[in-house]
Design goal:
Helices cover 9% and strands 50% of the residues. By secondary structure, it is mainly beta. A hairpin with a 4-residue loop joins strand 14 and strand 15.
């Protein structure tokens, strides 16, 4: 009817036990007594705990198997060892309930337990590599090595055991930086089981779990992998609230992506929503060709539909930001993690000493390599105020004069382009010139193509390629190639051209013209080796065919006159 064991602190220790309606099985010859509750649980440890199961009483102590409940905790084991104020179990399952005891807030299996009712503390050590622990309120699970339960504080202290911390990575050869980081992580692994978080995880050497407000506070978290990026918490603290909500990570760092690790965003304010989703804002260092560092603020750092990190920022005109010492910039800037370089969408302004040329903010959008800047220049160029900008040499109809334009406006809307260049704008540091042409010609000057340059201090402007003299002669057709050179300080413009003139004329008249020219004494022969002719030939027939023609002529003459040179009159040395 009634069962009682008095506690004993000296000698062989016994815990206090009280029970009612107990089933007893006594083996006197083996000196063992088994007591099992049949309804009401045992009361143990001065009524600090209740016990459902079987107790085994021996001269050497008190043991048993069953379920021990105390405060808001539950301990299940097949081999309890009950001492005066301590419970030990080599293998056990430990569960914690919420304060209203409506459900569990913490569950773990296969741990070695040590509970001290005087110290009001429980210590638990995993029996395997790591024990599986569940935080139902937080929708998280954890693989931990050991933890301590502080009964009165309502806290769990989670940590990695010495055996886990002593594991050092062995083979680091041929590992990527990301892999090298991963193998050095030590501690307990926390994994979200929220259905929208795709098993978001992180590793923490130590953590605390508050049983009152259901908050996991992880410490010394080195990194969190999210989408294609790695987030590094600034102070190493990661706090998980109910329903898997991770608190904002302040002063964090982001490296994206994990394969190429091109980009680092620092002093970031980061919210992580799942394994493939996060948002942030932070700062980025842009390093130009002189290794000058300028800071860009990205107001938006997030993940696109393919789970790739991107960022967007805005650079104000008053920030005096430069892509290099030769190109100012204002506008939007984008980061795409799989691209080594940033994309700039805004306006640039060049820097020169030429007073006769105004400088305008020119719109563009392209990816910029700080060590090798190429600004796209199309058929239509617009400035920051949506006005049309021009490049080349223009002729005015009213006063019949030619003037240069380099990223500037035309004087009159009706002015005709004598020469225009498009392709890419770059700055050649060796020549101290801004240049516009296709990339091939910018890298190899002797190739064909329209080309325009401006010397930033000497203020000389040079163009070569196809020339339009701005006149319509009706039945007289002109084909003109060559170069144009302008001294912006003096205002002079010089042309050196090849000019093909085609018109209707009787063949006999041309024969008379030809004979008269041949009979003029003292005329020098045409110099087909001069640079203007060679480059003009490139423009007219193409590089490969021009080289063939030059080789043929070096042997005496062209095998066949190329169609592109068949004009009524072909002038090879025209200077204006």
């Amino acid at each position: 009817k009634e069962f009682s064991i008095e506690k004993q602190a000296t000698g062989v220790e016994f815990a206090s036990v009280q029970g009612k309606n107990i089933y007893i099985h006594w083996l006197p010859y083996q000196d063992e007594m088994y007591a099992t509750n049949k309804g009401t649980p045992f009361e143990m440890y001065d009524k600090q705990a209740t016990y459902e199961g079987t107790l085994k009483i021996q001269p050497k102590g008190l043991s048993g198997w069953g379920k021990l409940e105390f405060a808001t905790a539950q301990l299940l084991s097949n081999q309890f060892n009950f001492k005066e104020h301590i419970v030990n179990a080599d293998t056990s399952n430990f569960n914690l309930k919420t304060l209203d005891q409506a459900e569990f807030s913490f569950k773990t299996n296969n741990v070695k337990s040590h509970i001290d009712f005087k110290e009001r503390k429980g210590e638990f050590l995993s029996n395997g590599e790591a024990s599986f622990v569940e935080f139902p309120q937080n929708k998280y699970i954890c693989y931990m090595d050991q933890f301590t339960w502080l009964m009165d504080k309502g806290e769990l202290e989670i940590s990695a055991s010495q055996r886990a911390l002593s594991k050092l990575p062995e083979n680091k050869e041929n590992l990527s930086p990301t892999e090298a980081e991963d193998i050095q992580l030590q501690g307990s692994k926390f994994i979200s089981i929220h259905p929208n978080q795709d098993s978001l995880s992180f590793i923490a050497p130590t953590a605390k779990y508050n049983l009152k407000n259901f908050v996991i506070s992880a410490n010394d978290v080195k990194l969190i992998r999210v989408a294609d990026a790695t987030v590094y918490p600034g102070d190493g603290k990661v706090i998980i609230e109910k329903n898997a909500v991770m608190q904002t990570l302040k002063e964090s760092k982001i490296i994206a992506n994990n394969t190429n690790r091109f980009h680092t965003i620092y002093n970031a304010t980061t919210n992580i929503y799942g394994k493939k989703n996060y948002s942030s804002s932070g700062y980025y260092d842009y390093i130009d060709e002189t290794n000058n560092k300028q800071v860009i603020k990205f107001d938006v750092v997030s993940v696109d539909s393919t789970y790739q990190t991107y960022a967007k920022g805005k650079i104000g005109i008053t920030e005096n930001f430069t892509l290099s010492p030769n190109f100012a910039f204002t506008g939007d800037v984008y980061l795409f993690a799989n691209n080594e370089f940033l994309t700039f969408d805004g306006s640039t302004k060049i820097s020169h000493d030429c007073e006769t040329l105004n400088r305008y903010w020119v719109n563009f959008k392209t990816t910029i390599n700080p060590k090798e800047i190429y600004i796209p220049i199309g058929d239509t160029v617009i400035d920051i105020n949506n006005n049309k900008i021009n490049n080349g040499f223009y002729i005015t109809n009213d006063s019949i004069h030619i003037y240069p334009s380099f990223l500037t406006k035309r004087k009159n809307y009706s002015d005709i382009a004598v020469f225009k260049a498009k392709g890419y704008l770059t700055f050649d540091k060796k020549d101290s010139k801004y240049k516009i042409s296709n990339k091939e010609k910018l890298q190899e000057f002797n190739l064909p193509g329209d080309y325009l340059s401006l010397h930033r201090s000497a203020c000389n402007m040079y163009g070569e390629g196809k020339i339009n003299l701005g006149v319509n002669l009706g039945q007289v057709k002109l084909v003109t190639v060559g170069n144009v050179n302008s001294d912006l300080i003096k205002g002079d413009v010089y042309f050196d051209l090849l000019m093909g003139i085609t018109f209707f004329i009787e063949n006999k008249c041309m024969e008379i013209f030809y004979k008269d020219m041949v009979n003029i004494s003292g005329l020098e022969p045409i110099d087909l080796s001069r640079n203007v002719f060679v480059k003009g030939l490139y423009e007219l027939v193409g590089e490969n065919k021009a080289n063939e023609l030059i080789s043929e002529y070096s042997l005496g003459k062209f095998k066949k006159m190329p169609k592109e040179l068949e004009h009524t009159i072909m002038l090879t040395d025209v200077k204006f």
